[in-house]
Design goal:
Number of helices: 16
Strand order of the largest sheet: 3-2-1-4-5-6-7-8
Strand content: 5-15%
CATH class of the largest domain: Alpha Beta
Shape: elongated
Number of domains: 3
Largest sheet: 8 strands, mixed
Order of helices and strands: EHEHHEEHEHEHEHEHHHHHEHEHEEHEHE
Structural class: alpha/beta
Radius of gyration: 24 Å
CATH architecture of the largest domain: 3-Layer(aba) Sandwich
């Protein structure tokens, strides 16, 4: 089976590598010539555990190919996946220009029945626009070539994307023809040997499922951040509250961890897009508007705690940040809490020293050299008057408190992920603040 995947970003590259791993012949398409040349050499542009080895293995095996020209492959493939970017526009709506360009290329060049599958996260109704665009191009050609359109949203977690794709908890496919459903079932069969987990829906429902899923997870996070702030006011222990409500099987334990806010390429963007879609249809997503507001405020909570500790006197103080990525096991800093904190600290006149195992260059591309990038976690704390834990990388979980006491000017820790024990910190002479 031969397929093409347009877009070699996070979703497209993981999808292509994992399909190739199962023996499918995959060509990944991208207009960025330099990126394609690097991928052909096994050099990948993102950090994702297990992905680089998988790409190299399948390139060497001749199952995974890279090119810049979709047109050259449309007479060979049965399925084209569109995995291009859908960044938010100025008003928060998803920019579909790349999705539509793929549809135009598809319509201009198909020679036989081919299935067009949207893998990108797109608003409800996009598949209809894709279909109309393809039909328009076929009319211009004077051709009546059969095709189908389907929606196959991704549910990959950064840092565990390869595992998520290889052993999915569900695969959602929106399609309106038996032919398309059969092709997609055959394509995903190798991933279903341990149990059938495919969910077939109409196309609009598949498009909505992705947004609804991310919005629900984001809602749980913001709900807990609202709860943790109230717990701090009334003297309740948020960890006990979390365990108590998480033991309720109707609620469950996942995504009930308070912190300094969520970021990344999915939750913030998808929240805005769903809110905007609702506006366009005369609805208002009041819960999601609140989720968004809570999260933006939560990103500044460690700064507020620091400012209170020093009575607002932050000018000239050196502050250390451990963790820059929005979550562990990724180099992604898009909408990360660290970026909000850096700007607040700089505006307050602080000197900032940072360390992250993977995301230093990603941060530098956004922040530049306004902060000091350190070689390791302890170098970042030399002469520091406060240490902020932003991303809960494993190497930060059991730090040497003796080394910290020796390197820091002031033994002050602000824990944005609640991974340390207050009693242990205080026994070692640290002033310790957590979320809640």
């Amino acid at each position: 089976m031969n397929i093409a995947i347009v877009g070699t970003g996070y979703v497209g590259l993981v999808t292509g590598a994992c399909f190739a791993e199962m023996g499918i012949d995959v060509t990944c398409i991208d207009i960025n010539i330099d990126k394609i040349k690097q991928l052909e050499q096994g050099i990948i542009p993102i950090y994702e555990p297990g992905l680089e080895d998988m790409v190299r293995r399948n390139v060497d095996a001749g199952r995974l190919h890279f090119d810049t020209d979709l047109k050259a492959h449309l007479d060979k493939v049965e399925v084209v996946f569109s995995a291009v970017g859908t960044p938010p526009d100025a008003e928060g709506a998803a920019d579909l220009s790349q999705v539509m360009e793929v549809a135009r290329t598809f319509g201009r060049n198909i020679k036989r029945y081919t299935l067009m599958v949207t893998k990108s996260t797109v608003p409800v109704g996009t598949a209809h626009k894709v279909r109309e665009t393809i039909c328009e191009e076929l009319r211009k050609r004077g051709e009546d070539i059969p095709f189908d359109v389907a929606s196959n949203p991704e549910f990959l977690k950064e840092g565990a994307a390869v595992k998520d794709f290889m052993t999915p908890d569900r695969v959602v496919v929106g399609a309106d023809s038996d032919r398309a459903r059969k092709i997609m079932a055959r394509l995903y069969k190798p991933f279903m040997l341990s149990g059938e987990r495919m969910i077939f829906t109409d196309i609009a429902s598949a498009e909505m499922i992705k947004y609804a899923a991310n919005s629900m997870l984001a809602t749980r996070i913001s709900f807990m951040n609202d709860i943790v702030n109230l717990c701090e006011k009334v003297g309740a222990d948020v960890n006990m509250v979390r365990k108590g409500i998480g033991a309720d099987t109707r609620i469950g334990r996942k995504f009930l961890y308070p912190g300094c806010g969520f970021g990344g390429s999915c939750f913030p963007k998808d929240l805005r897009a769903l809110i905007k879609t609702a506006e366009q249809h005369g609805c208002r997503m009041r819960v999601l508007e609140a989720v968004q507001q809570v999260n933006e405020e939560q990103k500044g909570i460690l700064f507020e705690k620091l400012a209170r500790h020093y009575n607002g006197n932050l000018e000239g103080r050196t502050v250390s940040l451990w963790g820059l990525a929005f979550k562990p096991e990724t180099d992604d800093v898009r909408e990360a809490p660290s970026l909000v904190l850096i700007e607040k600290l700089l505006n307050a006149g602080c000197k900032i020293k940072v360390y992250d195992p993977i995301a230093m260059e990603s941060c530098r591309s956004v922040v530049g050299d306004r902060v000091t990038y350190c070689r390791d976690m302890y170098e970042a704390t030399i002469d520091s008057e406060a240490l902020m834990l932003i991303t809960e990388w494993k190497e930060f979980r059991v730090p040497s408190l003796d080394v910290l006491k020796a390197t820091m000017l002031t033994p002050l820790i602000l824990d944005g992920r609640n991974i340390y024990d207050r009693e242990e910190m205080e026994e070692h002479g640290f002033t310790y603040y957590k979320i809640g």
